[in-house]
Amino acid sequence: MMQQYFALKREAEGCLLFYRMGDFFELFFDDARQAAAILDIALTSRGEHDGEPVAMCGVPVHAAEGYLARLIKAGCRVAIAEQVETPEEAKKRGGYKALVAREIVRFVTAGTLTEEALLEPRRANVLAAVCELRGTIGIAACDISTGRMELEECTPESAGAALARLGASELVAPEEWDAAPEAAVARPRHDFASDEGEARLKSLHGVATLDGFGNFTRAMLAAAGGLVAYLDHVGRGTLPFLQPPVARTGHATMAMDEATRSSLEILSSQQGGRAGSLIAAVDRCVTGAGARQLADDLGAPLLDRSAIEARLALVHWLHDDPLLRADLRGVLRALPDIGRALGRIVAGRGSPRDLGQIRDGLAEARRIRDFLSAKPDRPALLEALLPAMGGHGALVDLLQRALVPSPPTERSQGSFIAQGYDAALDELREISGNARRAIAALEGRYRAETGIAALKIKHNGVLGYFIEVPAKHGDILMAADSGFTHRQTMAGAVRFNSLGLHEEAGRIAEAGGHALAAEEAHFEDLTARVVEARLLIADTAAALARIDVAAGQAERAAEGGWCRPQITDDNSLAIEAGRHPVVEAALTSSGGKSGARTGSGERFVANDCVLSPDDRLWLIGGPNMGGKSTFLRQNALIVVLAQAGGYVPADRATIGLVDKLFSRVGASDNLARGRSTFMVEMVETAAILAQAGERSFVVLDEVGRGTSTYDGLALAWAVVEAVHSGNKSRCLFATHYHELSRLAESCEALSLHHVRAREWRGELVLLHELADGPADRSYGLAVAKLAGVPKAVVTRARSVLDRLEQARSETGGIAAGLGDLPLFAAAASAVHDERVDPVRQQLDLLDVDALSPREALEMLYSLKRLTTEREP
Ligand code: ADP
């Protein structure tokens, strides 16, 4: 057995091997250890190998799906080795001790799932392949749950942003490629051959040239080759559903790199989940397919004004007609996920239920088309979508006639083909129906004949049909001439057979077998018909998703009083009374934040942002917690929402198309990402300075904070100057460095703004309101007090501050230039003690995550000792 196991394990190429043994999938050796830890199941052992006990764990086959889901979530890939013959067949083949033959029947990997239970309904599941060809990067991506496929070529520098947009759950790359993304699964180099890729796509779609689908470069085709080869490998030769590829050029969508996406929390929050993200605050889609389309839209805002306007016009139409919108959403809500049902069917993993979903979804699509076609003033985008929703008359009709109203997920039991569809099948069912009735009649007859009222005819999987009487009556039927033959004696009952029962049961079994075979044949036939229509069905699914997105956007806009943005081709950005959708939603739902006192009470304070070529950089000061980050991000999010073709949380918005969006948060604000290093901050800032242009929008939050005050100020200063005079991008720059105000003197397109705060009866009141001009002071101490820093510490800080300010006035004013920052010279000496503080040094060196609880405790003791030693 071990020999067979090792052969399969080699074939599994690094995947965990699920080795079928009877009712269990067993895992051995390291696989077992890994799986047992992830699944929290018992690790046992079995036999010995090389003198060591073999570690083993197992999961029951009927519950395997749940365990698979958890393993996939934990980043594993799994190969399923099934028994491909029965023990009887094995015996026949190889004698009494023959081993049942096993084969890997499929691989389960994060990027190649189709099972409803393993997929998230509102998230696309992307598999991507990436490779390099003569200095350019090719990327191929698909979502096999719906068949979508796209190819992209980019430079090595922009590859990161392209992959970030895709958010693939699994990535493959050629082996031995130095620049391969860390998480990528290594695949043979020869899989990534462009001619092979091209040939595969051509044969897949039955075309002589791919030109009809778009312009594909060699790098794109090489990546496509790698992708299809991997799918082939994982599917053991059966390819999943792939629609014709779409070529994506970097110029069609707004560029956003990984850091920008994560800092703006577009599809997931920095904590990792959907909660707290932009999409969670915006998504009002009523179908999973709509939600997936919306995620796609928000992840790839458009650059083409007319395409954006087309989407906006549809949202507008639905926004202005609440009754129509409500009706439409009501119907959409009931739609099955036909895109994913189709994905399963084409991949050969479809069920009768999936066919039923296709039937219902297509029928519903036709009704929606009829309903919308009757409405006046339809926007152009809708007109373009409607034809895709009605072309399936014959198929819908066929499926409606063929299938029962709610077909089961299990196909081996039959009972999914409707009465009246196939006369021969009906006859077989009639025969078994009659036989069942005959058996029921037999029961009555036998009771009368034997006088045993408790006699029953029963059925189970082992014996089939049998007659059962309580033990005390057993003798009556045991009599030689009773006509009954004994089959089994139980504790309280005896079981018999009879000639009559045997015959009727035979009829049922035979008719049942034929009926099952007939249903199976129909299933194959119906599946083939659906597969034939796959591209049209995929179009229908896409059209419905697009309509759902628009209706959801309209709903969200109506709910929040959002406006339709004006899109222009110039470099302006004018947002009146803008709001942050996530922060606003959080305030509304919690009924306002407790704790910190805000001048706004419980409500979100709307703010304007007006940038133009000669006032393109806003430097925003004001106290911590004053609302700077919120303001920065809300404007970036409004741009994303607008260019994704939706309404925006503002009273009015004019948006000059943004080609690249950058958002960065200074290192110390960024601890949650677990990359606290100042290095990361600078790498990210460098990327902006290298890439941002006049059409870009840059949002920088406290950049320069992750290092000493002195360096930080200097860097912030230089970065602002560079963005202002070099990149010339529209930019919002939040800082608590007061001194940066001086930049207004040398940078003509820079203006000063601040979030307002007031001290009232010794308490700080944050107004969250943006005002013109520099912040009058930093309010740092007031914020510290608000945050509950002990009074003694605040008082001490106040006295240090006084000394600093005194030093400042003595040296005659604040920073006159970067070479000469007297304030900081004074500050350096005033806080000198703090710099060499041994406790602080210890803390700086500490890697908290690396400590065991015991080490942590010891560290605390040692820190405590240090402080007591220092105390006079
Ligand atoms: P800063 O960047 O200035 O430190 P934040 O933008 O992080 O401040 O805001 C701190 C908190 O203040 C937010 O979490 C939010 O609860 C609240 N806040 C920010 N802006 C507003 C606003 N415009 N209206 C109401 N509350 C706001």
Could you give a short description of this structure?
This protein is 46% helix and 18% strand. With 872 residues, it is α/β, with parallel strands linked by helices. β8 and β9 form a beta hairpin.
CATH architecture of the largest domain: 3-Layer(aba) Sandwich
Number of domains as seen in the coordinates: 6
Oligomer: single chain
CATH homologous superfamily caption of the largest domain: P-loop containing nucleotide triphosphate hydrolases
GO biological process, one term: mismatch repair
Organism: Allopontixanthobacter sediminis
Family: Belongs to the DNA mismatch repair MutS family.
GO cellular component, one term: cytosol
Commentary on this structure:
With 872 residues, this protein is of the alpha/beta class. It has six domains: 2-108, MutS, DNA mismatch repair protein, domain I; 117-250, Nucleotidyltransferase, domain 5 (2-Layer Sandwich), CATH 3.30.420.110; 283-392 and 533-558, MutS, DNA mismatch repair protein, Chain A, domain 3 (Orthogonal Bundle); 423-524, MutS, DNA mismatch repair protein, Chain A, domain 3 (Orthogonal Bundle); 561-575 and 605-789, P-loop containing nucleotide triphosphate hydrolases (Rossmann fold); 792-870, no CATH class. Helices cover 46% and strands 18% of the residues. The protein has 31 helices and 27 strands. A seven-stranded mixed β-sheet has the order 13-23-24-25-21-26-27, sandwiched between helices. A six-stranded mixed β-sheet has the order 3-4-2-1-5-6, sandwiched between helices. Strands 11-10-7-8-9-12 form a six-stranded mixed β-sheet. A hairpin with a 2-residue loop joins strand 26 (750-760) and strand 27. Helix 14 (352-373) crosses helix 16, helix 16 (393-402) runs antiparallel to helix 19 (499-532) and helix 27 (791-810) packs antiparallel against helix 28 (822-830). The longest helix has 34 residues, at 499-532. The chain is globular, with a radius of gyration of 35 Å. 43% of the residues are buried. Residues 583, 593, 598, 600, 604-605, 624-630, 755, 768 line the site of adenosine-5'-diphosphate. Adenosine-5'-diphosphate is lined by residues 583, 593, 598, 600, 604-605, 624-630, 755, 768. Belongs to the DNA mismatch repair MutS family. This is DNA mismatch repair protein MutS. Residues 696-712 form the DNA mismatch repair proteins mutS family domain. One of its GO terms (molecular function) is mismatched DNA binding. Keywords: ATP-binding, DNA damage, DNA repair, DNA-binding, Nucleotide-binding.
